[in-house]
């Protein structure tokens, strides 16, 4: 598999915590080409429907909220079936405490009729150390079809960000999602436009580390603080290949389509020889 | 659906609210708008705000000569000014269905949550329904645009929140009112109480099960699910004893729902 993965990433992905029911988004506009977020799925969970988000406090530039609550494999299959009947694909988000749990979920979904609708699998590895990231991604890679796009979600605030990204790619991740969410406590996060700087710092750290060959590089997804086309283009300039929208959709769902168009216009065209973690501006600025 | 750029054309004070009229350039989304639907006003992240404003639609009028206008009831503190440009996403959700025949109806609401009733009373009057309105509020200023309501309703009764259940029973049993349908809007505990009383008398109930004054509403579009509500209908046909309830997302599946969904065991 090449560093870019089996196929180009969609320009825009959706955060699973912010879109707990994609049917609400589908009534507002066309979702073709945008993977529908499905999950987070955890082995052993029997919840049939994603419960609503819990927001504890709204502050300037962000909000304090709980992590998305996990749902069952059956709930994920139902949502994938809904997406498939509309010609859409899904991004299956998996979480788990053991590598076996992660793999079991991926295997169950892929063996089902709805498995073909899975466009990508995102493994939530925020807070995990690099060895755990390596084991989890390796196990999920074994469980997933060979051409399945695998995304590893890591935290931009993690001091071992580069090591985690390296482990994710070594384990078979085809892209790394750089989450700008700030941890406020167990399963509690701060999200919003104020996290843009955190996300951009994470992207920059990975881009520099790739240039120094401290990790092999992979397409990066900016997940944090992307609340409009300008923020999305900033993320692209820092080396992101695509962006993930979350709480921005609560403020204004139509931002999905404006950001999608902006990112599609701002991305290098196929055939351009730009390394996945380097932007064009950097190529112009870096000394030879 | 894309947002509509609306312009505020008039602001009229009504107690703790401003009745705000806006002109919208495209009439087509508003032709079939109903009382009980919502509009979301997206926010600019540059202002530091991360959540949209969500308001009840308080009126929508489409005129082939003068164009389309939309009414909203906004809090006075918002300081809405004439000429202000407001981006509207909507109309969202399922509104109140009007009765097929001109029958007497009772509208029950509480405080600012009763905004959808302001337009509903106008629509019902146009259909020839005699309308009785029962409103509760803890502060007289929070009663909704009473001049407008009194213009269209046969009777407007005001009550304190603690007196509302007794007043409701009296109106339901009053032969002069004799309501055939009950519409309600306000906090969910109030709606459950209204639904119980009305269903006990065999009256159909439709309730706007979303409390925009409460802390639960985050996005207004059904994405976040913060407004999720446990209802006693499992979506599998007529209800039977022993069936579990289900979670309803009012922003997506409502906000107007049958009263039967809000009570545990409807008396029929």
Key descriptive features of the protein:
A: TIM Barrel, eight-stranded parallel sheet, 10 helices, 36% helix, 21% strand, disordered N terminus, B: 268 residues, Elongation Factor Tu (Ef-tu), domain 3, Rossmann fold, 5 helices
Describe this entry's structure for a reader.
Chain A: It comes from Ornithinimicrobium pekingense. Chain A: This is Dihydroorotate dehydrogenase. Chain A: Residues 267-288 are annotated as: Disordered. Chain A: Residues 276-288 have a biased composition (Polar residues). The complex is a heterodimer of chains A (288) and B (268). Chain A is an alpha/beta fold and 288 residues long. Chain A has one domain: Alpha-Beta Barrel (TIM Barrel), CATH 3.20.20.70. Helices cover 36% and strands 21% of the residues of chain A. Chain A has helices at 22-26, 73-85, 99-111, 130-143, 161-171, 196-211, 229-237, 248-251, 255-266, 280-285, and strands at residues 12-14, 36-41, 55-59, 62-66, 90-94, 118-124, 149-155, 175-179, 182-185, 188-191, 220-223, 240-245. In chain A, α3 runs parallel beside α4 (130-143), α4 runs parallel beside α5 and α7 (229-237) runs parallel beside α9 (255-266). Chain B is globular and about 50 Å long. Chain B has a 6-stranded antiparallel barrel with strand order 1-2-5-4-3-6. A 6-stranded mixed β-sheet of chain B has the order 9-8-7-10-11-14, sandwiched between helices. Chain B has 2 domains: 4-92, Beta Barrel (Elongation Factor Tu (Ef-tu), domain 3); 105-262, Rossmann fold (3-Layer(aba) Sandwich), CATH 3.40.50.80. Chain B has helices at residues 115-126, 146-152, 164-172, 188-200, 250-253, and strands at 4-14, 17-24, 38-41, 53-63, 67-75, 85-92, 105-110, 131-136, 155-159, 181-185, 205-208, 229-231, 246-248, 256-258. With 268 residues, chain B is of the alpha/beta class. In chain B, β8 (131-136), α2 and β9 (155-159) form a beta-alpha-beta unit. The relative contact order of chain B is 0.15. Chain B is 17% helix and 32% strand. The N and C termini of chain B lie far apart (41 Å).
């Amino acid at each position: 598999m090449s560093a870019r993965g089996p196929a180009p990433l969609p320009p825009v992905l959706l955060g699973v915590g912010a879109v707990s029911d994609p049917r609400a988004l589908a009534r507002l506009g066309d979702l073709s080409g945008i993977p529908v977020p499905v999950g987070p799925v955890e082995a052993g969970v029997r919840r049939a429907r994603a419960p609503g988000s819990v927001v504890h406090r709204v502050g300037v530039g962000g909000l304090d909220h709980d992590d998305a609550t996990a749902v069952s494999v059956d709930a994920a299959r139902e949502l994938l079936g809904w997406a498939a009947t509309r010609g859409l694909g899904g991004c299956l988000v998996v979480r788990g405490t053991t590598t076996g749990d992660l793999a079991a979920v991926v295997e169950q979904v892929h063996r089902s009729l709805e498995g073909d609708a899975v466009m990508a699998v995102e493994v939530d590895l925020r807070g995990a150390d690099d060895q755990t990231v390596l084991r989890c991604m390796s196990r999920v890679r074994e469980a997933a079809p060979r051409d399945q796009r695998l995304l590893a979600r890591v935290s931009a605030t993690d001091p071992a960000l580069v090591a985690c990204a390296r482990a994710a790619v070594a384990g078979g991740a085809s892209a790394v999602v750089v989450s700008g969410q700030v941890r406020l406590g167990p399963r509690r996060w701060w999200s919003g436009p104020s996290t843009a700087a955190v996300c951009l710092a994470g992207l920059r750290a990975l881009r520099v580390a790739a240039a120094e060959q401290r990790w092999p590089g992979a397409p990066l997804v900016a997940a944090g603080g992307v609340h409009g086309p300008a923020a999305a283009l900033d993320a692209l300039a820092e080396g992101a290949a695509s962006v993930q929208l979350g709480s921005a959709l609560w403020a204004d769902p139509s931002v999905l389509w404006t950001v999608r168009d902006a990112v599609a216009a701002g991305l290098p065209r196929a055939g351009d020889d730009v390394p996945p973690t380097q932007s064009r501006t950097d190529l112009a600025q870096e000394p030879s | 659906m894309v947002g509509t750029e609306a312009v505020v054309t008039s602001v009229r004070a009504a107690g703790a609210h401003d009745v705000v009229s806006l002109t919208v350039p495209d009439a087509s989304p508003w032709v079939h708008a109903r009382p009980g639907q919502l509009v979301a006003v997206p926010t600019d992240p540059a202002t530091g705000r991360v959540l949209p404003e969500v308001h009840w639609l308080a009126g929508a009028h489409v005129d082939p000569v003068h164009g389309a206008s939309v009414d909203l009831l906004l809090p006075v503190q918002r300081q809405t000014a004439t000429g202000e440009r407001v981006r509207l996403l909507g109309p969202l959700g399922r509104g109140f269905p009007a009765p097929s025949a001109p029958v007497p109806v009772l509208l029950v609401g509480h405080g600012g949550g009763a905004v959808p009733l302001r337009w509903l009373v106008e629509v019902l009057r146009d259909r020839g329904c005699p309308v009785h309105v029962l409103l509760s509020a803890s502060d007289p200023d929070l009663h909704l645009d009473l001049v407008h309501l009194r213009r269209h309703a046969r009777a407007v009764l005001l009550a304190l929140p603690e007196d509302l259940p007794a007043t409701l029973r009296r109106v339901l049993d009053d032969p002069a009112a004799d309501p055939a349908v009950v519409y309600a809007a306000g906090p969910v505990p109030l709606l459950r109480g209204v639904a119980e009383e009305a269903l006990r008398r065999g009256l159909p109930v439709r309730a706007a099960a979303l409390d925009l004054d409460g802390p639960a509403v985050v996005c207004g579009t059904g994405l976040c699910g913060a407004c999720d509500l446990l209802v006693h209908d499992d979506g599998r046909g007529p209800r039977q004893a022993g069936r579990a309830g289900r979670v309803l997302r009012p922003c997506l599946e409502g906000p107007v729902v049958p009263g039967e969904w809000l009570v545990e065991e409807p008396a029929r």
